[in-house]
């Protein structure tokens, strides 16, 4: 496994003179970490993620990925390190068959045919998309299209994956699949960065959160600390996870972020 640590130093990004999306972002993410980017709409989460695979380039400051300065890496080189799923599946899907869509990323990375085949089959299976492999993605429902886009990213087999709002529209079975995928990615020591407004999912699945507001990092640390900090949550228009609210209701000594810790604290 290639070690692809991410280091951003004072990254600034302006879409225009009027719109500064990122202000002095400094961040280190080590290979194998799982983190969540959280914050209100328009706080800069997607703009930050797009800097990791070269879709956007900093207006100021600099980034290093796997020890190399990002400005020295072209989009093709960055795509081998960081794969990013889009928030809206319709912005990502371009093929008329699910199989072809999932194969599109690894084919573009010029992997050998056999490798592409096995990565696609593995990814379809992880997301329970095997029976839909021949379907047209545009005939599928929103959450199925969402799963297709996530499967396409996982199939690229990059050391870093970024999922933008992966839980949107997912039912309990699909959330279970996603959690199993995260476990699999952890076994493979992949770095997983999740952009999410789903605080229940973040609390249960992710140990470190980076909270953005107005293009600045307001907090970077353990999710248990963030979810205890009501002022931080309020200033980021985020609500406490339900399980944490329930532990406050029962006046538990420990703030529970998972059903398991809740039951333990209740006992
Ligand atoms: N293509 C663009 N052109 C101009 N401004 C943009 C563009 N994309 C985003 N912005 C602006 O940049 C800022 C950061 O937006 P960004 O999409 O990164 O935030 P976000 O936290 O991902 O939001 P959301 O949760 O709604 O997806 C916002 O002010 C947004 O309006």
From TrEMBL:
Coiled coil: none annotated. It holds the Pfam family ABC_tran. Signal peptide: none annotated. Keywords: ATP-binding, Cell membrane, Membrane, Nucleotide-binding, Translocase, Transport. It comes from the Bacteria. Belongs to the ABC transporter superfamily. This is Energy-coupling factor transport system ATP-binding protein. The lineage of its organism: Bacteria, Pseudomonadati, Thermodesulfobacteriota, Desulfobulbia, Desulfobulbales.
């Amino acid at each position: 496994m290639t070690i692809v640590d991410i280091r951003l130093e004072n990254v600034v990004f302006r879409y225009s003179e009027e719109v500064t999306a990122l202000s002095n972002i400094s961040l280190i993410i080590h290979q194998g970490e799982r983190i969540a980017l959280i914050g209100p709409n328009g706080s800069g989460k997607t703009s930050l993620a797009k800097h990791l695979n070269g879709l956007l380039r900093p207006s100021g400051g600099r980034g290093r990925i796997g020890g190399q300065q990002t400005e020295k890496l072209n989009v093709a080189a960055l795509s081998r390190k960081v794969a990013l799923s889009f928030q809206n599946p319709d912005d990502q899907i371009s093929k008329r068959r699910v199989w072809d869509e999932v194969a599109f990323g690894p084919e573009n990375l010029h992997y050998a045919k056999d490798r592409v085949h096995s990565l696609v089959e593995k990814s379809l299976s992880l997301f329970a998309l095997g029976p839909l492999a021949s379907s047209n993605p545009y005939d599928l429902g929103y959450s199925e299209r969402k799963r297709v886009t996530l499967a396409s990213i996982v199939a690229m087999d990059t050391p870093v994956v970024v999922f933008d709002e992966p839980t949107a529209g997912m039912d309990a079975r699909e959330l279970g699949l996603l959690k199993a995928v995260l476990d699999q990615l952890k076994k493979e020591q992949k770095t997983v960065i999740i952009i999410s407004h789903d605080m229940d999912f973040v609390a249960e699945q992710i140990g470190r959160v980076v909270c953005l507001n107005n293009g600045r990092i307001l907090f970077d640390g353990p999710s248990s600390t963030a979810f205890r900090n009501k002022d931080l949550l309020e200033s980021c228009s985020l609500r406490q996870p339900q399980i944490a609210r329930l532990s406050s209701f029962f006046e538990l000594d420990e703030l529970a972020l998972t059903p398991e810790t809740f039951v333990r604290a209740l006992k």
